């Protein structure tokens, strides 16, 4: 467990990067979690004309400017996927794939690229459904595990749990060639429903069914309601006020995850507000604790 930080920023798109810049300027301790590539969505933009000061630039060019800005301020992105965040009252516990963390405040800037939950997924969360195979591997010693992976880099998680489980099924939801240990059974099919009584018992696919003790769903990002228990949502978005505050004290959100329009400049502005709100919250807490 690392030392408790002031602000944990989840997501490295325009909202998360903007929040990190302002956390740094305000001299707060923080970590920004995401990809060092910054934003895959931004990179894919052919041309952006509605970002003030970046007229006619491609998404890749803007991404590179973001990266230069971060580098100039010695801000490093922590490439650890945060799977769960728990409000502990006066701080937050963050469960990552590689490490666990503690933070006094959290800014959620995860975007909206999470998939729609499978039927039964939310019902069996914590009862056979999980989002981090390496985290929960000890629970599945000599048991049957199924991994539904949306990105090729998740193959390492499958290989890891194959060393523990008696059997691993791997269902790739991506197009690249699958390269996993020979002991793992690769299934090219579409997951439909997770079924069980009190615990997961099987996965129903379009063309077959698999009996399994555990199912790990490895998406690039997790829906906010699953990521942070108790978070108030407005449809698929996080419900926030003008200060980017959620219903959980010390938890803020910004960017696409709080609603439309899905615009880069809007996300960056909200990241700025969220960071300033987190700073104000921290300063007020410290005054009250004196």
TrEMBL record:
Domain FAD/NAD(P)-binding: 6-143
Domain of life: Bacteria
Keywords for this protein: Flavoprotein, Oxidoreductase
GO MF annotations in UniProt: thioredoxin-disulfide reductase (NADPH) activity
InterPro entries per the UniProt record, alphabetical: FAD/NAD-bd_sf, FAD/NAD-binding_dom, Ferredoxin-NADP_redctase_2
Family annotation (Pfam families): Pyr_redox_2 (PF07992)
Documented EC number(s): 1.8.1.9
Protein name: Thioredoxin reductase
């Amino acid at each position: 467990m690392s030392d408790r930080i002031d602000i944990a920023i989840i997501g490295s798109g325009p909202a998360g990067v903007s929040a990190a810049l302002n956390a740094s300027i305000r001299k707060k301790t923080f970590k920004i979690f995401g990809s060092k590539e910054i934003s895959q969505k931004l990179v894919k933009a052919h041309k952006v004309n509605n970002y003030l000061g970046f007229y006619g630039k491609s998404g890749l060019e803007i991404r590179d400017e973001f990266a230069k800005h971060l580098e100039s301020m010695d801000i490093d992105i922590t490439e650890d996927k945060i799977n769960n965040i728990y409000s502990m009252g006066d701080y937050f516990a963050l469960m990552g794939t590689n490490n666990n963390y503690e933070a006094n405040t959290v800014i959620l800037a995860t975007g909206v690229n999470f998939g729609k939950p499978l039927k039964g997924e939310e019902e069996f969360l914590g009862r056979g459904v999980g989002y981090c195979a390496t985290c929960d591997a000890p629970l599945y010693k000599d048991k049957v595990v199924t991994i539904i992976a949306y990105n090729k880099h998740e193959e390492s998680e499958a290989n890891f749990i194959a060393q523990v489980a008696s059997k691993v099924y791997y269902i790739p939801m991506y197009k690249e060639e699958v390269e996993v240990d020979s002991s793992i059974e690769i299934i090219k099919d579409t997951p439909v429903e997770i079924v069980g009584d009190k615990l997961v018992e099987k996965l129903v696919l379009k063309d077959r069914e698999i009996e399994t003790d555990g199912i790990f769903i490895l998406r690039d990002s997790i829906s906010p309601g699953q990521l942070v228990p108790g978070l108030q949502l407005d449809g698929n978005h996080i419900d926030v006020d003008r200060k980017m505050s959620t219903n959980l004290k010390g938890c803020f959100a910004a960017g696409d995850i709080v609603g439309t329009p899905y615009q880069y400049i809007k996300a960056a502005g909200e990241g700025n507000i969220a960071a300033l709100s987190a700073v104000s919250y921290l300063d007020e807490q410290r005054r009250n604790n004196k």
